[in-house]
Write a structure and sequence with these properties.
The complex is a heterodimer of chains A (about 375) and B (about 400). Chain A is of the alpha+beta class. Helices cover about 50% and strands about 15% of the residues of chain A. In chain A, a hairpin with a 5-residue loop joins strand 6 and strand 7. The chains are: A alpha+beta (about 375), B alpha+beta (about 400). Bound molecules: flavin-adenine dinucleotide.
Chain lengths: ~375, ~400
Amino acid sequence: MNFDFTEEQIMLRDSVERYMREDYDFDTRRGVADSELGMSKENWQTFAELGWLSIPFTEEHGGFGGDAVDTMLVMEEFGKGLLVEPYLATVVLFGGALQKSGNQAAQDTLIPKIIDGSCLGALAYLERQSRFELADVLSSAKSDGDGYLLNGEKVVVLNGANADQLIVSARTSGEQSDDAGITLFLLAADTAGVERTDYRMMDGQRVANITLKDVRVGADAVLGEVDNGLAILNAVAMDANLALAAEAVGIMGQLNTKTLEYTKTREQFGVAIGSFQTLQHRMVDTFMDYEQSKSMLYRAVCALTNGEEDATTAVHALKVLVDRAGTRVYSEAIQIHGGMGLTDELDIGHYAKRLMMILTTFGNGDYHQAKFNEIRYS
Amino acid sequence: MDTSFSAEDIAFRDEVREFFATHYTQDLRDRIADDDTFKEAVTEWQKKLHKQGWVAPGWPAEYGGTGWNPTQKFIYDSERAAAGVRDVIPFGLTMVAPVIYTFGTPEQKEEFLPKILATDIWWCQGYSEPGAGSDLASLKTKAEVDGDDYVVNGTKVWTTVAQHADWIFCLVRTSSEGKRQQGITFLLIDMKTPGITVNPIVTIDNHHSLNEVIFDNVRVPVANRIGEENKGWTYAKALLAHERTGIAGVSDSKRNLDQVREFAAKEINGGKSLLAEPSFQKRLSDIEIDLMALEYTELRVLATVAAGGAPGAESSMLKIKGTEMQQAIQILRMEVAAYYQGVLPNDMSKEQLGHDFGSDARQAYMYGRAATVYGGSNEIQRNVIAKAVLGL
Ligand SMILES: Cc1cc2nc3c(=O)[nH]c(=O)nc-3n(C[C@H](O)[C@H](O)[C@H](O)COP(=O)(O)OP(=O)(O)OC[C@H]3O[C@@H](n4cnc5c(N)ncnc54)[C@H](O)[C@@H]3O)c2cc1C
């Protein structure tokens, strides 16, 4: 047993770390987040050239053939640098669903385009009533000749406005929250009847509400099996939760490091505020929060890559722990920075807001704790 | 011990309820919520309260206060909060006015108190400096006498509503001899005086309410000094106690908690109402129970004050418990909103967006982080209790 990374993994991590440190400082990031698109296409091309967009894809499609460990390593670095480009949306969610669908034709056309940076994607899985339930789907797909007619609305779609291609969950049969009867459809974002309204979130993400009005798609738009889309969504959500937790760990580390530094330089009452024991104990607690989160992340990633049976339990546990730990870490970081922690100018609040959104995406702590309890105690 | 309401109390409650229902209109709410009309709308509202004679419940009756007993004050504040009516802007009415009527000259009282009551002027509080936050006594903004004026130089920071203020009350250094607290003077400064620059500070709720205020050779008449030179700290401390009693915000928290309960009842979580979720119920009731106790803690403090006692370290307790509960309620509201907690203000209608309180929840929560920092941080309040109550 060891917790070592391969040489290849270390190179990958270092390449992301260097880029974020040298080319993606806080001001640059702010400029990107505030720009028209809310991302930089130029940066995206650089990510393609550096090979980051190819990580989870098979070598057959020109990918890196990486696993959850590789994704974890890059996401942690993205967290440290507060990346706003839609890596999660395009590579992990859209690319992940494509990969898991087994739809060879769609993979052959689109995966190389994801890898070379020419295709941005989004997974439209949420509806306004669905909260954290992936199965709560009202959007409908009715058979229409040899294809389907899609109607409904998807909300808070990550990267929804910039995406070239969408994967949409819609109901082909069953009732609102039935597990069976959900089908995933792949369609170009400019398909007739698709309307997008985009808006900004506090963590710099651009999201969109997408309405589908009599959107006509062919039978080849179906990803995976008809009525069985939930299995794909669940598997993607599992990967996403690992990726998000890794990003959260990166952010927590930054918040702790920056807060500790601040307490060594900020003086009140003639001494560094870090000399006050009450602050010391709280920073010790957030240090332990970080370490515990990292351990749980490793545990869950190992469970998933080893195909262990309790991988799902581990991912629920991870999301619970990271929620509790992350909330404490950002709260203390803001509090210990005093007035400075409240400013938009300082990066602390931006780390906090990204962390908050991570903690609620694909289920918050309470949601995952209920799932954990279901598995363990019923 | 008796905390029941008399028939008069109930009549008073009905009168207050009716007044808010009639006068705090939706139009007023909308204009107060809009940055562009905020100042004008708040002024309009406070003038209405003044006309009713209710704008300054905390002031002695001789200066225009209401003369209410603690029960009436409690009823008034509960009704105000329950109706979702914002409290008055504190800087003039609850912060500087008590200093002026307690320590000011007859001329100062005559000049400022009527204008404060009528909200003819807006105030801001210039205490904190870049180097002087928790350790306020280390403040460096300097005032030197030159003829009939003080000449003020230095920088104040985190100054709330300075961009709207006509006047600022400041603590400045007039002596660096002896104990640091003994060289501080309390000055009232006209914001239109040449040499004052106000720079905005945007906060993590994406809003501008804070400012940096720079003084460059600003001439302030000695007549604008409160009390004696080098005694400003004493006056400010008396004021801090006032600032801290209101800070518990129990009435507002009760209303906000009710609102979270309503939102949670409508939010569907895995096929049933989020409110039916045992884990959510526990989090809600943990807060509600704490709040039930805090309401009585606040009443006990108010009763002590009414009986002639001074709010001392108890006000620190109200501040700590009150602000921690405010934040606990705010984060619960965020969790009800789920993904929508991240929404920034936009041009979409609530119908288009698909949600109606996410952005408000975000703004309140993010700005709400400040409550444990300002007015003496909660760490400092704990130090106060340790020292003053526990004798450590
Ligand atoms: C939204 C907002 C509005 C404000 N409005 C005003 C205003 O209108 N006018 C005004 O004058 N000021 C205002 N303030 C300033 C506020 O009073 C200060 O922020 C506060 O006093 C803390 O000072 P600081 O920010 O310098 O933090 P610091 O004093 O640097 O504190 C940093 C951290 O160290 C902790 N700490 C400090 N000393 C100790 C100790 N001895 N033991 C343990 N922990 C300690 C603090 O609790 C805090 O967590 C406002 C602040 C905010 C955030």
